[in-house]
Design brief:
This protein is mainly alpha-helical and 228 residues long. Helix content is 57%, strand content 6%. Strands 2-1-3 form a 3-stranded antiparallel beta sheet, with helices on both faces.
Length: 228
């Protein structure tokens, strides 16, 4: 199968390019005129989200079709790229990200960080959801699995311990966080073999779950075990 790491690297590079393009847009926001300038910034960010989101979806579609061919799956299947987040969605996200600019002590650094992370998430989610939607629609697919980056956080590793999310579950959710670089991998074999890092996380989760009392305690013990 086509290496999931290569697709992950391509999407990460795309996110890096997006971040570079976002940087010159920040001066559009004038802290003495937020009502008028935040919408202008949101509009400019939305244009980039559209462009880079389409690129993310195209990368994901090519990856899915190449992985399908590499796995010798019979028959033809055309991936339909998912549309990027629209202006309304981006505007809402930027509004949330820049809420720290309002008031007597604006937190510019945090607002800028959150705005960049929000745009990145919208773009990368377009590629992730393109793969997940294709896996759910493709009758020859068993589903998809979460691919974590090296040194992934406990949140991502915990989600990855689920292994393959099978098509019969009709799962269409991919949870992520700011600057998350996890991606979805289509599964074309009944037996899914996760990476060594995920297998280790699965073993740790199994161990802590056997002694922890309740989901919250299990998650806390899992984080502590990974840190140790």
């Amino acid at each position: 199968m086509v290496a999931a790491a290569d697709h992950q690297a391509a999407q990460t590079a795309l996110a890096g390019s997006l971040t570079e393009q976002l940087a010159p847009l920040w001066p559009l926001i004038q802290e003495d005129n937020l009502d008028a300038t935040i919408p202008k910034y949101s509009l400019a960010v939305s244009a980039l989200v559209q462009r880079y989101g389409q690129a993310s979806a195209a990368l994901a579609a090519s990856y899915y079709e190449a992985a399908r061919q590499s796995a010798d799956v019979p028959g033809r299947f055309s991936v339909v790229p998912v549309s990027p987040a629209d202006l309304e969605t981006v505007t809402k996200g930027i509004g949330w990200a820049t809420k720290g600019l309002w008031g007597d002590s604006p937190d510019t650094a945090t607002a800028r960080h959150l705005a960049t992370a929000t745009a990145e998430r919208y773009v990368l989610n377009t590629g992730r959801m393109t793969i997940i939607s294709a896996a759910n629609a493709d009758r020859k697919s068993y589903g998809w699995a979460r691919v974590v980056e090296p040194g992934a956080c406990s949140f991502c590793l915990l989600l990855a311990t689920r292994g393959a999310v099978y098509r019969t579950e009709q799962s269409s959710e991919f949870r992520s966080h700011d600057h998350c670089r996890c991606h979805a991998q289509p599964i074309f074999d009944a037996v899914y073999e996760p990476s060594a890092e995920v297998r280790r996380a699965q073993q740790i989760y199994k161990q802590v779950k056997a002694t922890a009392k309740g989901p919250a305690a299990t998650r806390r013990a899992f984080r502590q075990a990974l840190a140790g």
